[in-house]
Amino acid sequence: MSHSTIALCRTPPYGSAIAREGLEAVLTSAAMEQEIDLLFLGDGIFQLLDHQSPEEIGQKSLRRNLLALPMFGIEQILVCHKSLRDRTITLDQVQIPGVEVKTIREPGTLIAAYHCVLSF
Fold this sequence. Notes:
Layout: E1 5-9, H1 18-31, E2 37-40, H2 63-67, E3 76-80, H3 81-86, E4 100-104, H4 107-112, E5 116-119
Parallel strand pairs: 1-2, 1-5, 2-3, 3-4
């Protein structure tokens, strides 16, 4: 495996600062030229949905952070297939310009291959 760090994005986008801080940590790592993979699973896949209105609850959108991924060299994200299916979300709904979205059917096996696992 060429990457040794994976960030698990598990929390919904709003209601706490965890999702935002996680994405900011990933962008910071990438800016320091550290290779890091992103896996969205559980309620974390809600971070990927466009057309949200977080300003209505007094929060900033995470969309800008996601759109910045390719500028920091992150051109692929991983999404848990079961998490999509359980929430009736399709791949068409989680598109980010400049980023390939790849579904993962066995996230446990994937995660076990990494040396470092960050969870947000």
